[in-house]
Amino acid sequence: MIWTVSTVNVNGLRAAAKKGFGPWLAATGADVVCLQETRAERAQLPDAVIEPPGWHTVLAPAAAKGRAGVALYSRRRPEAVRIGFGEAEFDDAGRYVEADFDRVTVGSLYLPSGEVGTERQAEKERFMAAFLPYLVRRRSETSAQGRELVVCGDYNIAHSEADLKNWRANARSSGFLPEERAWLSRLLEQADLVDAVRRLHPYQDGPYSWWSYRGRAFDNDAGWRIDYQMASPGLAERAKEALVERAASYDRRWSDHAPVTVSYDM
Asked: Transmembrane residues, as ranges (predicted)?
């Protein structure tokens, strides 16, 4: 059985719904779709987005209106849902939601973006410091239960030079700082997770998943790979296909990110 998971930062679900998110969702073969940066509460969204035919939805908006927000869409109703990760500062910040499906736990993560020398970077660092031990513990718990784990989402960090087109120019930028990249390495090692896309595409640059709206970044494929599916080894070994669903042209984009889709042979 092929089981497919897709993850995408929608850059505002209300805006994405007007630009093409609905047709994409109707056409996708994914069994679970993880969304980030929804920036909307349930009452602000039309029924076609909240309750699309054939989908069960879980929304975890941020308490601060118009910020962050994560969601899960699934073909099957989740067996259990957990919002947040037990850290008071972030539990109502619309940063993390996870759900159980059969023998797999799926998380949708929106790690804060930062800006060097500002409170935004300090917030990002606090989140990273709190989330890593949670994920290590959660990985141990799911393993003890005989469950696989995949944490999908916008990590706002390009892990290696292959994950960022203009890496030299961004060596001191948030998202490619040495300490951020080292944190992502620790996450993979300490939580015993595998970058499912990189496992299937080990030697290529990218495939990038985010392009700035400024200039001709999209047309020149000057992107960042910051959207990941970090999977437990048993699940990662079952990954058979991974692709970034890059829009055919700039004017057909419904977000500045593209869906990252992985199919697992279960």
From this structure: none
User: With contact defined as beta carbons under 8 Å apart, do 70 and 57 qualify?
Assistant: no
256 annotated ligand-binding residue: yes
Helices (H), the chain: 13-19, 21-27, 47-50, 119-144, 178-190, 196-200, 233-236
Distance CA 148, CA 223 (A): 30
Given the residues 73, 96, 110, 208, select the one marked as catalytic: 110
Q: Tell me whether residue 154 is one of the annotated catalytic residues.
A: yes
Q: Which of 31, 96, 154, 264 is catalytic?
A: 154
Along the 266 residues of the chain, how does pLDDT read in single tens digits?
A: 999 999 999 999 999 999 999 999 999 999 999 999 999 988 899 888 988 999 999 999 998 888 899 999 999 999 999 999 999 999 999 999 999 999 999 999 999 999 999 999 999 999 999 999 999 999 999 999 999 999 999 999 999 999 999 999 999 999 999 999 999 999 999 999 999 999 999 989 999 999 999 889 999 999 999 999 999 999 999 999 999 999 999 999 999 999 999 999 99
Q: What is the pTM of this model?
A: 0.96
Residue 56 annotated as binding?
no
Q: Is 156 annotated as a binding residue?
A: yes
Domain with residues 2-265, CATH architecture? 4-Layer Sandwich (3.60)
